[in-house]
């Protein structure tokens, strides 16, 4: 029987909280959640609190109530350490020596318009990317902040401008698309989700995400109309959820995808074969950024899976997707010109 107790509690400038629970066993990796005080960040922190390969979970934000969030998380028995940092001037300290950074950001809700959330997230990612470029070695970075199509290229440009950028280490976390497609396909065909695979490629927006029904397993005998209906339903799922939630952005499936992403990264760092769904810098598909299933190892993103024998419907979607992704990437880079 393991008894957990607080060994020490220290306060640092900007109310850094540090709790250490028990003895660290085989956990090896430090994960930092930047934006850990918002709704998404808190949920991500909860999901990662007891992940077996995380030896230290670090939570950073600028909100004054962050120490209370960290204290609350410390009440969850875990053999990992947890730290909290408050304020932009503590950001570099928070991410120093981290193996992985998760950036959350704010989401659209009835009190925060899409435009306002976008502007806040621009500043958030710009600050993080600038700081991350100063850290040696640069950790792996997973961005779940919306809009991913735009903010990931912007983050890359910020880091490149600050002299430290490795495209293998920057990810847009898009696993929710892959999981959503699997769940919806299983429901439509009365199958068990664990027995289904639905590749999803493109970007991370209604106009750019593409479920490849020609590549599903087990295969379906749907006609063209049924495939088009499924694609429309899949692409509209987030909008439908937001409407049902009376204007609140869906976050639970996103948080679950972040948890699986972190687990996958930890596996990759341990040299285990890992495949993750992510939006990364990739020039193989007609645009400089693209999402899909990719191999990940200790160095970060590797080769992305490719597919042949796409249907004409999928080819048409892909053509329009690439056109939109090019615009999104340019927008992400041009934001910096007016900042």
Describe this structure in words.
The strands form 2 sheets. Strands 1-2-5-4-3-6-7-8-11-12-13 form an 11-stranded mixed beta sheet, with helices on both faces. A two-stranded antiparallel sheet has the order 9-10. It has a domain at 10-173: Rossmann fold, CATH 3.40.50.720. The model is unreliable at 1-25 (pLDDT under 50). It has helices at 39-48, 66-74, 91-95, 114-132, 148-161, 175-189, 224-235, 237-244, 252-269, 312-334, and strands at 10-12, 16-20, 29-34, 54-61, 81-86, 100-103, 140-143, 170-173, 200-202, 209-211, 274-281, 289-297, 300-304. It is an alpha/beta fold. It has 10 helices and 13 strands. Helix 4 (114-132) packs parallel to helix 5 (148-161).
Quick synopsis:
With 339 residues, the chain is α/β, with parallel strands linked by helices. It has helices spanning 39-48, 66-74, 91-95, 114-132, 148-161, 175-189, 224-235, 237-244, 252-269, 312-334, and strands at 10-12, 16-20, 29-34, 54-61, 81-86, 100-103, 140-143, 170-173, 200-202, 209-211, 274-281, 289-297, 300-304.
What is the fold's blueprint, element by element?
Elements: E1 10-12, E2 16-20, E3 29-34, H1 39-48, E4 54-61, H2 66-74, E5 81-86, H3 91-95, E6 100-103, H4 114-132, E7 140-143, H5 148-161, E8 170-173, H6 175-189, E9 200-202, E10 209-211, H7 224-235, H8 237-244, H9 252-269, E11 274-281, E12 289-297, E13 300-304, H10 312-334
Helix pairs in contact: 1-9, 4-5, 5-10, 6-9
Major sheet details: 11 strands, mixed
* Order of H and E elements: EEEHEHEHEHEHEHEEHHHEEEH
Q: What is the end-to-end distance?
A: 55 Å
CATH superfamily (homologous) name of the domain at 10-173: NAD(P)-binding Rossmann-like Domain
Output the CATH class name of the domain at 10-173. Answer: Alpha Beta
Named CATH architecture of the domain at 10-173: 3-Layer(aba) Sandwich
Q: How helical, in percent, are the residues?
A: 25-40%
Q: How many helical elements? A: 10
Outline the low-pLDDT stretches.
Answer: 1-25
Quote the average pLDDT.
Answer: 91
Proportion of residues in extended strands? 15-25%
What's the number of extended β-strand segments? 13
Class computed from helices, strands and strand pairing? alpha/beta
Give the overall silhouette.
globular
Radius of gyration: 20 Å
What is the CATH topology descriptor of the domain at 10-173?
Rossmann fold
Kindly report the spatial arrangement of strands forming the biggest sheet.
1-2-5-4-3-6-7-8-11-12-13
């Amino acid at each position: 029987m393991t008894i957990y107790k607080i060994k020490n509690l220290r306060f640092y400038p900007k109310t850094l909280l540090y709790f250490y629970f028990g003895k660290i066993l085989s956990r090896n990796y430090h994960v930092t959640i930047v934006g850990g005080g918002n709704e998404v960040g808190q949920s991500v922190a909860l999901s990662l609190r007891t992940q077996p390969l995380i030896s230290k979970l670090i939570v950073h934000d600028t909100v004054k109530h962050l120490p209370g969030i960290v204290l609350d998380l410390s009440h969850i028995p875990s053999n990992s350490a947890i730290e909290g940092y408050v304020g932009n001037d503590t950001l570099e300290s928070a991410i120093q020596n981290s193996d992985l950074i998760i950036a959350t950001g704010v989401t659209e809700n009835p009190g925060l318009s899409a435009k306002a959330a976008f502007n806040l997230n621009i500043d958030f990612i710009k600050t993080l990317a600038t700081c991350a470029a100063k850290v040696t070695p640069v950790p792996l970075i997973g961005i779940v902040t919306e809009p991913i199509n735009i903010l990931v290229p912007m983050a890359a440009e910020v880091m490149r401008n600050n002299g430290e950028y490795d495209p293998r280490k920057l990810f847009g976390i898009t696993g929710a698309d892959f999981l959503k497609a699997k769940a919806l396909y299983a429901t439509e065909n009365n199958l068990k989700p664990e027995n289904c695979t639905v590749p999803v490629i493109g970007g991370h927006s209604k106009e750019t995400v593409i479920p490849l029904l020609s590549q599903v397993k087990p295969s379906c005998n749907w006609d063209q109309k049924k495939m088009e209906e499924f694609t429309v339903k899949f692409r509209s799922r987030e909008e439908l959820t937001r409407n049902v939630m009376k204007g609140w952005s869906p976050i639970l499936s996103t948080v679950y995808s972040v948890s699986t992403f972190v687990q996958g990264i930890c596996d990759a760092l341990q040299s285990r074969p890992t495949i993750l769904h992510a939006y990364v810098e990739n020039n193989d598909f007609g645009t400089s950024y693209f999402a899909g299933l990719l191999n990940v190892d200790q160095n970060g993103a590797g080769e992305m899976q490719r597919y042949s024998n796409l249907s004409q419907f999928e080819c048409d979607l892909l053509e329009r997707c690439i056109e939109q992704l090019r615009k999104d990437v340019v927008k992400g880079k041009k934001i910096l010109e007016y900042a």
